[in-house]
Amino acid sequence: MKTIETTNPQKLAKLQSYSQGKWFTSPETGAILKNAVTGDDVASICSDGLDFAAMANYARTVGGPALREFTFHQRAMMVKNLATYLLERKELFYELSTATGATRADSWIDIEGGIGTLFSISSKARIEMPNSKVFPEGKQEQLSRKGTFVGQHIYTPLQGVAIHINAYNFPCWGMLEKLAPALVAGMPVIVKPASQTAYLTELMVRHIVESNILPEGSLQLICGRTGDLLDHVTYQDVVSFTGSASTGLRLRQGEKIAAANTRFIMEADSLNCTILGDDVEPGSAEFDLFVNEVVREMTVKAGQKCTAIRRAIVPTTKLDAVSDAISKALEQVVVGDPADDSVTMGALAGTDQRQDVLTAVDQLLKHSRLAFGDVTQQSFVGENTSNGAFLSPLLMVANDPHTTVAHDVEAFGPVCTLVGYTDREDAVRLAAKGKGSLVGSLVTNDGDVAQDITLGVAAHHGRILILNEACAKESTGHGSPLPQLVHGGPGRAGGGEELGGVRGIKHYMQRTALQGSPDMLSNVTGIHMTGSTVKSSEIHPFQKTFEELEVGDTLITEKRTVTLEDIEAFAELSGDKFYAHTNEEAAARNPFFDGRVAHGYLLVSIAAGLFVWPDEGPVLANTGLENLQFQKPVYPGDVVHVQFTCKQKKNRETETWGEVRWDTTIFNQNGDICAHYDVLTGVANSSDETK
Ligand code: NAP
Which of 177, 230, 232, 244 should be mutated for ligand 1, with most atoms under 8 A from CB? Predict the structure, then answer.
């Protein structure tokens, strides 16, 4: 593990950057970073001397091509392996994380939360994306009457570099949540952590490099300023910024970024709110949940979360009860050195950050009264804390709900303002005064309140948590962005979007609308397009192994007459005696039918009876059925057959079998399509391996 010098600046550890496959030490000392708890020096940081243009070029010419040699699944496996590697070393990160002022619980969010995001994005990618180099999006579009001209959207990786500029509050999670989607997409990354806590990011990058899991050039690190890096961006690059709205705005308006139309993702500060439903009474489970949630958001990471609750909007009639209950709970919070077991809230990331919070609090207090806390508190738990960046939690109550600066001023620390509302419309108006937030929450046990308020505020928020007793035990809480759900928000929150499962991966790819003949599009996408050439062979496709199967392999089945006896037997067997299958007159009165019809599920079963090869072979199981549509009724006496085509193959990196999707169409005697769907199967790679 990296040694942290704590005394003589001459001997102080200099953070290194990782550039073009080598660790780089700036000849200059740069800024000194302080331990948030003790105020001791931790390291110095400077990037002077780095060749930023060469770094970008290295990423584009070495990292990008190396990554794009692999498929989505192969890259997702790298991300998973990286997660496992980092998890095995997590205690090293926890140890250093204490210097950021974080408690063990705070560090868990940053370190294991970040690693968990790697696992999650990797898994989503392998489930929802093909194991190939092109990602078709949505369904084939029929662009012509005869079907010889069709369309399909595809995603392919951008061929530039992803530049990730991150905030100081989550030195690990902030890097990993952006790294995972970029790598899976196939883009190399240059990470620039915020200086204040860059020592922890540097340590993690050191381990990532040592792991040798990622191809050369796929990850570089800048410790210090970004120099002229942003003057070298192109339209193939992505800049993803997390930090204050003012810095974000400046960077987004940079001449080169604007001229090249470089994709710019921005996650900025946000005046997130929580709303207490007007149905919730003191003493109820939901009232306690509201109080707990506000206290948790004020104290976790000492309130330094972009998603933390800054405004708690409550019915005016309940302001006093809420203020008293939160104050009572805050009395239990122990602020001090996280090394002390009694401590429940650590320090801010540094004294500069504390000063920023105090300046914001000054502004807030001009429009509010302090209900809990002491801005002048100097003494905190722990022996060596007098120079630490500690602050008491501060709860305020707005004087005038509509004019308070609480809607504009973000105190990025353990600070929250209570704002009173008169009715639901008023609550919605107040929430919207944040001018766009990452997340909002609503605590209610009333479905009407949930609908009125959620639909009123949704357009102003990237994520909304509706909390009641039913989900509270398993709820991940107001402040936790989740890899499966989008993180980002409109307006003041930056207008950006990250994560959200595979959506986050698409931010690093270009969507292209392909047009052409079905055969051409099949070749490009690796998916059998409707209307493209089908290949029939003597061998039943169920007798072919995963490797032997080719997209387009097709079986045209025998024909079968569907009889009234079939329908009656199926009604008995399944218990589905819906009148359209059992009562001729009633069925005829139904606008969809002329008389009794076959059950849709009977048809699907008859189709399986026609296309299945019964003997033991490479096909292992039917794992699902998708996009089923019944298009034309089947009457007793109709004669059906099936066209069954290998539509898409998805080999699995860690299994001896792959997934095969079969385009399945049931026709009647007139050539009309009665049903159309995808059958999903697991097919063994080779007959030997199935044994
Ligand atoms: P900041 O001053 O805007 O800095 C953010 C990042 O930008 C840091 O890495 C910083 O590097 C870098 N930076 C600053 N000036 C730059 C420039 N001219 N060129 C290139 N990079 C530059 O924000 P902060 O005060 O550190 O972070 C706290 C803010 O971030 C809060 O307002 C919080 O709400 C917001 N935040 C938002 C999210 C989100 O997901 N929406 C998450 C966390 C935090 P240096 O540190 O080296 O200056």
Answer: 244
Q: Which segments of the chain have a pLDDT < 70?
A: 1-11, 687-691
Helices (H) and strands (E) in the chain, counts: 21, 28
- What pTM value is reported for the model? 0.89
349 CA distance to ligand 1 centroid (A)?
13
Q: Which residues of 206-225 are buried (b: 16+ CB within 10 A; e: fewer)?
A: bbbbebebbbebbbbbbbbb
Kindly report the CATH number that applies to the domain delimited by 534-690. Answer: 3.10.129.10
Dihedral of alpha carbons 216, 218, 223, 224, sign: positive
Q: Model confidence over 102-152: pLDDT tens digits?
A: 999 999 999 999 999 999 999 999 999 999 999 999 989 999 988 899 999
pLDDT at 378: 84
- Predicted pLDDT of residue 3: 37
Catalytic choice (202, 267, 286, 297): 267
- Note the pLDDT tens digit of each residue in 426-479: 999 999 999 999 999 999 999 999 999 999 999 999 999 999 999 999 999 999
Which of the listed residues 52, 242, 351, 499 should we mutate to test ligand 1's pocket, taking the one with most ligand atoms within 8 A of CB? 242
Q: Is residue 585 annotated as a catalytic residue, yes or no?
A: no
Ligand 1: residue whose CA is nearest its atom 27: 243
Q: Which CATH class is domain 49-137+158-267?
A: alpha beta
- Domain ranges within the chain, ordered by starting residue: 49-137+158-267, 273-493, 534-690
Is the Cβ–Cβ distance between 690 and 620 less than 8 Å? yes
Closest CA to 397 of 418, 422, 425: 418
Angle between helices 104-128 and 173-185 (to 10 degrees): 10
The pLDDT of residue 690 is 44
Q: Whose CA is nearest to atom 15 of ligand 1?
A: 247
Residues at CB less than 6 angstroms from ligand 1: 165-169, 192, 194-196, 226, 242-244, 247, 251, 267-270, 306, 410, 412, 438, 494
Termini Cα distance of the chain: 47
Question: What is the CATH architecture assignment of 273-493?
Answer: 3-Layer(aba) Sandwich (3.40)
The residue to mutate among 221, 306, 310, 409, having the most atoms of ligand 1 within 8 angstroms of its beta carbon, is: 306
